Amino acid sequence: MICEDQEIVRAGYQMAFDAQPDMTVVGVAADGPAAIEAIHELKPDVVVMDIQMPLMDGIEVTRRIAGPGAESPPKVLVVTTFNVDKYVYEALRAGASGFLLKDAPLTELVNGVRTVARGEALLSPAVTRNLIGRYADRLRPASPQPADDPLAVLTPREREVLRLIARGLSNQEIAEELVISFETVRTYVSRILTKLNLRDRVQAVVLAYRTGFADDR
Asked: Is the model more confident about 33 or about 122?
């Protein structure tokens, strides 16, 4: 499902997706309310979501279709530009599975759809550091973490892995950093998400910053 208010952009996306043997565009929408209605009716696997849309922005649409309490939420891939990156963080909190820059090559967008469709988060390490790090001040808690710190359920090694996730490292980079196998890292990441009841590593990054853990050296 393509949610984008610019007709020329929608057409470009649709041509790129329809040309793939494993993808079918089931619908398009040019504004927020139309997007919600179409998504509920068509039940797409993945939604490519523009943030700046008429009547209702992509953040609110994402929150309604993929946020807490949403039934059978689709994967949401947000497309945006750097000059509105503060909204990207809000979109991730709202339930998006990842984001790409709007000027990314169409091949990158196509691969991004496949990534989130597999249930993986699409979070570029460089953009993670620039985006979430830039807003770390407003994400940090005003007071020390309470005794019932949600991260207390993690082992020391899992906390170490989470800290590297929050730095924006990929599984391969974490494996190299800790000198362990890629599969071992995948196991740690899976355990972290399960213990913290998180959907993907995007939510893990957000939680790490919200609790102040990402700044704990």
From this structure: 33
Give the CATH superfamily of 2-122: Response regulator (3.40.50.2300)
Letter for the amino acid at 66? A
Tens digits of residue pLDDT in 201-211: 777 887 887 78
Neighbours of 22 (CB within 10 A): 9
Burial class for 137, CB neighbours closer than 10 Å (0-12, 13-18, 19+): exposed
Burial 142-179 (b: 16+ CB within 10 A, else e): eeeeeeeebbeebeeebbebbbbbbbbbbbeebbeebe
Domain edges within the chain:
2-122, 141-215
State the CATH architecture for 141-215. Answer: Orthogonal Bundle (1.10)
| 149 pLDDT tier (thresholds 50, 70, 90) | confident
